[in-house]
Amino acid sequence: MNLHEYQGKEMLASFGVAIQRGIVAKTAEEAVRAAKELTETTGTGWHVVKAQIHAGGRGKGGGVKLAKNLEELQTIAGEIIGMQLITPQTPPEGKKVNQVLIAEDVYYPGDSEPSEFYMSVLLNRATGKNMIMYSTEGGMDIEAVAEATPHLIFTEEVDPALGLLPFQARKIAFNLGLSGNAFKEMTKFVSSLYKAYIGSDASLFEINPLLKTSDDKIIAVDAKVTLDDNGLFRHKDLAALRDLSEENPVEVEAREVGLNYVDLDGNVGCMVNGAGLAMATMDLIKQAGGDPANFLDVGGTADAARVETAFRLILQDPKVKAILVNIFGGIVRCDRVAQGIVDAYKNMGDAIKVPIIVRLQGTNADLAKELIDSSGLNVRSATAFQEAADKVQEAIG
Ligand code: GDP
Ligand code: MN
Fold first, then answer.
1. Can you say whether the dihedral through the CA atoms of 267, 268, 274, 277 is positive or negative?
2. Predicted confidence (pLDDT) per residue in 72-114, tens digit
3. Are residues 40 and 113 in the same domain?
4. pTM assigned to the model
5. How far is the CA of 223 from the centre of ligand 2 (A)?
């Protein structure tokens, strides 16, 4: 689950991470009030207006703007709220901005040497350890830095049993070229950031830019936070921050009915029981020359109601040219599933316009095949993996 920048910063601050302070606003009037309130606490009259959407690159897309006074701030906030913001990370049509973060300007006017660093915390799947990735080349596209100057990106792995050790935080501050007070501030920043990562069960933090001001403050100016969904039950307060308007509506619907569905870009929908078989089925579709339109694990009970829900979810995607059902009847009997498919199909009338290929293996697979073949519906049965792949290929042409 992703957080908005303002939510991520609030969470980080609760762990003692130094952040650019700000207040979220839903209207231009609220934005003005937020700016006044901020001026009272920070003393600065300049504010930055930042669109809150679940995508980066907002600066490039015109979603981050500086206001010199309250009139300007009101105008800018009015323009950004409600706009369709297009950035390199949004879908081509962009994302609607429903709220802005009014933040203190931490780039002091006249500050000749603000340094923008990059810092992220994530899991290195190869070593099974969390790592802190950081660079002196912050503020810009880190992918471009990685491409052109990979030696400017450092990593520090953390032993899960020991946690982040003080010498590691010092090494990071040193590699970032800091000394004196800024060095101390950076070690504090790094250790509280790592504490927040563990404490919130996060799977990704990305702070870009991480700013060093001329008076040696180290401040998170941006915060991309992804939390591990499997850890959310331990964080009711964070789970409540989910913004459904930012998520894929089909995935939201699937979650509500307890189905494990992930939307993908391909043309073959699939319905499978078990995550492992679902992954293998996606490979099978690729092998057949197609591309999976989704990942869907229907779980152990593939009855008519559940099959129908799954079909409806898959068919919401207009790119789907065929559906592959791949079920192993271990606990559930294949003939039950087959009956479920036939019933769901009949129930849905003419909602199903694409061919369905069904591979049922396991208990009563023969009976299931008979049921499908004699149904008279546009459903083709297959028993072997290869046979299913061939039929998918035939269906998509
Ligand atoms: P992103 O483009 O979605 O990654 O959004 P960021 O939060 O990183 O903001 C984009 C850019 O806006 C940053 O790289 C900064 O250069 C700039 N920016 C952010 N906050 C301030 C600020 O307080 N003052 C000034 N002058 N620029 C800022
Ligand atoms: Mn950024």
1. negative
2. 999 999 999 999 999 999 999 999 999 999 999 998 766 666 8
3. no
4. 0.84
5. 7
